């Protein structure tokens, strides 16, 4: 990309070709990532904002290739395009359930484990059947397993998505609507979707201290969610001010760099 004054970028077809080639290379390397143990899972603690206690963990995948960190925002879309996401997500879910079992064995039954599920996985028939099977094959308390999905996953075919989410819920799993507020018609979705939790997107949290409007939106969502009986999780809490605001307006649960970054499971201090 060439820089053209005031931070604007103009893209030329060469750049697109280069990006395409790069993605192709990554897709090829990704094939071996699982077998070579290059994918690892980090866990970001979620806290009860009132008591400060850890109530759950969000599972976030990491790819370390040739000592370099490739962010999920880069390789997940590629994996979705190539279909590699199925195998990767299967592994993530299985590892997460195994971790849940370890907690239970240690006598900790209340810790929730939140797993991000790509829309691709939710929508593919064969894959979804496989997912249902792993979900059934672990003997854990499923009411403490949360599947996080984004609004964009649902919007393309809402009835279909609702059916799939209901199937997951039939297993006892809870559903969280991720990045809430960034989609098109969040409020309509809330009414139609079988969800238990809404996750306030980081973009709102970021500006609650300065921007009067975002603060109002957050307050309204918190009231609404309370009325509709949803749990609200705030993500991306980075400052004390943001934390205070969320506590003041009775947001039960939160996560963010201020409280803890995503870390390997053995680094979590309970
Ligand atoms: P997400 O599900 O919305 O995850 C939250 C992202 O925000 C994570 O980035 C997390 O590290 C980051 N984060 C948490 N607290 C803070 C904070 O206080 N400040 C800032 N600036 N960031 C914070 P990450 O791990 O890079 O993941 C990015 C996205 O990649 C995720 O967004 C999710 O959409 C996707 N992703 C990550 N792991 C998985 C996975 O296992 N499966 C699937 N399907 N997608 C995943
Ligand atoms: Ca998430
Ligand atoms: Ca999110
Ligand atoms: Ca996100």
UniProtKB/TrEMBL annotation:
Residue stretches making up the EAL domain: 23-270
Top-level taxon of origin: Bacteria
Record protein name field: EAL domain-containing protein
Organism of derivation: Anaerocolumna sedimenticola
Shown stretch of the complete protein: 402 to 671 of 671
């Amino acid at each position: 990309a060439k820089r053209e004054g005031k931070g604007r970028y103009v893209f030329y077809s060469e750049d697109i070709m280069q990006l395409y080639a790069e993605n192709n290379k990554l897709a090829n390397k990704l094939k071996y990532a699982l077998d070579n143990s290059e994918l690892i899972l980090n866990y970001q603690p979620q806290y009860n904002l009132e008591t400060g206690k850890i109530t759950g963990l969000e599972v976030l995948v990491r790819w370390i290739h040739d000592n370099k960190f490739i962010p999920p925002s880069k390789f997940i879309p590629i994996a979705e395009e190539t279909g590699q996401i199925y195998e990767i997500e299967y592994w993530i879910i299985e590892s997460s359930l195994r971790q849940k079992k370890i907690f239970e064995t240690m006598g900790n039954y209340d810790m929730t484990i939140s797993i991000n599920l790509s829309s691709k996985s939710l929508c593919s028939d064969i894959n979804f059947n496989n997912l249902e099977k792993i979900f059934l094959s672990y003997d854990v308390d499923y009411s403490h397993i949360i599947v996080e999905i984004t609004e964009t996953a649902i919007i393309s075919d809402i009835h279909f998505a609702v059916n799939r989410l209901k199937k997951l819920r039939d297993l006892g799993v809870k559903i969280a609507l991720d990045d809430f507020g960034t989609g098109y018609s969040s409020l309509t979705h809330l009414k139609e979707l079988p969800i238990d939790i809404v996750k306030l997107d980081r973009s709102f949290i970021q500006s609650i201290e300065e921007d009067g409007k975002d603060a109002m939106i957050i307050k309204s969502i918190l009231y609404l969610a309370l009325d509709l009986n949803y749990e609200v999780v705030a993500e991306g809490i980075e400052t004390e001010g943001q934390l205070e605001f969320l506590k003041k307006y009775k947001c039960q649960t939160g996560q963010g760099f201020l409280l803890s970054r995503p870390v390997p499971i053995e680094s979590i201090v309970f």
